[in-house]
């Protein structure tokens, strides 16, 4: 038994010596780059040699925790280098501030130079030739409960569609398609009521970073019991763009407009059109309770009323009224500025002898000849 124990210690020491020797045999090429003279021996467990792929602030949280793990007791990370895109982006700034080696995309690395790759909010499809260079594959931190919300914008679509639960998933990536690899770890998260995409992103970034560390601690065991994603329940989360920001008052409810604002409002202003001009709606004030002077006349979607006491523009939608505190026309205007400078003036020019508060307002996709009649009131 004593001899067997000694042999085991000798084998373990020899493997570590092989790794350290291979890791230190480098040479400098004519371009100043370090190149491997021989292939390093892959680690079978932590601490890992990691190559991190990321770009934005969501990715920084995982990179931050990996960086701190290099110096903690019971280390998970032995070495850590970074692949990111060009430009002044959060991951590049963090890597430079913490003196991490930064590789340009695509990286020029040798087989087995790193044990594991980690991808967090990177946006580029990793080719099979690069994946194969990592003995333990490449992990991805994805902010949804896969297979729900595969794609580049899962957080925004979680808010937009009113999901009450979401989570983070650690998968092993596969070539050719995003977000389809086997699941190694997954954790549920209850979406706080009325939170926006930025708030949810911060929470999931923190949760994802800790779940990544947990996964790396027992990676070999998790790889052995990985689970393929189910085909049912898969949904796609495309990138957000300005076409999503146009409000169609006839079709969208108060709740839908509120979710749209919480999903994209910090990046893209909600839009409508007034008198053929695009107006950006700012500072969403939520659902409004409106009592018009003429109770017999039902307002059509798109009707606008100004609430003097709360300095709010209230707009009628499919099932009620929603409020905004400001708009962007040529410049930012408060609700009172917009009413006094535009709505009220236009109303007086068009109907100086009438008390019926009507104004022609157009919406996206409707020609001027088919404009919808709206109400404008000062209450």
TrEMBL record:
InterPro entries: Fmt (IPR005794), Formyl_trans_C (IPR005793), Formyl_transf_N (IPR002376), Formyl_transf_N_sf (IPR036477), Met-tRNA-FMT_N (IPR041711). The lineage of its organism: Eukaryota, Metazoa, Chordata, Craniata, Vertebrata. One of its GO terms (molecular function) is methionyl-tRNA formyltransferase activity. The keyword Protein biosynthesis applies. Pfam families: Formyl_trans_C, Formyl_trans_N. The keyword Transferase applies. It comes from the Eukaryota. Methionyl-tRNA formyltransferase that formylates methionyl-tRNA in mitochondria and is crucial for translation initiation. Residues 239-342 form the Formyl transferase C-terminal domain. This is Methionyl-tRNA formyltransferase, mitochondrial. Belongs to the Fmt family. Keywords: Mitochondrion, Protein biosynthesis, Transferase, Transit peptide. It comes from Channa argus. It is found in: Mitochondrion. One of its GO terms (cellular component) is mitochondrion. It catalyses: L-methionyl-tRNA(fMet) + (6R)-10-formyltetrahydrofolate = N-formyl-L-methionyl-tRNA(fMet) + (6S)-5,6,7,8-tetrahydrofolate + H(+). SUPFAM superfamilies: Formyltransferase (SSF53328). Its main location: mitochondrion. Residues 110-216 form the Formyl transferase N-terminal domain. Its EC number is 2.1.2.9. It is an enzyme of class 2 (transferase).
